[in-house]
Amino acid sequence: MSDVGASALLDVLRAWPEAPRGPAPGDADALVHAAARHGLAGFVQHALGRSEWRLEEAARTRLRREALAQAARGMRVKALLLRSLDALAAVGVVPVSLKGYGLALRLYPEPLQRATTDVDLLVADAEVAGASRALEGLGLKPLGAEAAAHAREHEHHLTFTGAAGMVELHFRALVGYGEALEAEALLARAEESVLEGRRVRYLRAEDELVYLALHASNHLLQRLAWLFDLKLLVLASPGLDWGRVVEVARGTAFSHLAWYALEAARRLMGMPVPEEVLSALAPPRWQRLLAVRFFSAGRLLETELMLHKPAWVAAKLLLAPRLLPMARYTVRRLREDGLTALRTR
After folding, report:
1. How far apart are CA 220 and CA 65, in angstroms?
2. Among candidate residues 12, 10, 41, 6, the one with its CA nearest the CA of residue 27
3. Is residue 263 over pLDDT 70?
4. Cα separation of 113 and 253, whole Å?
């Protein structure tokens, strides 16, 4: 894939909400491939419609096909989200909608312009049992007892799957790098809203910005849509309290992760982030230098870390806020993966 063509995706994201300037990319197929890989085919089609870039017919056709396929998957997820909200409402639970369709509905020109593959709902710990039964009532299959007990102890969500798709029922906000971000404070500050006539809650803007940054960095920024979400959220929140953003991030065990995502979004996409915010959240200089290398434009466009497990593990260890919890987590995961491999032989 052409580096120039793929980097045109960053040109589109950096220019928004303006149209990209300059000549159209020479390798339009690379642009389309990158847009699809990073879950932004629909958005890129929309953005190019406002620009002077004119892609070749074959590239336009492929982009349109990718956007339609992405939208079809999004419609399926939306339908499951609405059914899930109805089911939880019947047992008195109003969840926080994380990421996905609810985020795209608020930030993108059209919600189906951003790829989404599952439903993520955050509930209080005391609501997990009732919410789980409600989701099972939709025909979604829960984890087995042993896997569910493991998830409750070590992970941040329970998974429910079926013909309609997948719902991840979060009882913690995030688990990663050997650390956990509990949900109570975020739930207490969440704001109620309405999604197509259903009651739903969203995280407060400052909390959501930190959460999205932590989630993106937990996955090593391997989907550029996650960084673009941050830019769109900042643009949509003119009253954003950056001091509160710092306070929330520093109140977690993951302030380094917030810096990785915010810095990359500013550097690669032109997201407006005050310098004092980055200074307040910055990890040690050696980690900042490593992050810029790991999260260079070329490496993120090619999702290099996601494609090479040893590099992924090395990046996780080197960028961890605290090495010992991350090392323990890595050892546990390697042991669990080894046991799983033995069971499947």
Report:
1. 28
2. 6
3. yes
4. 33
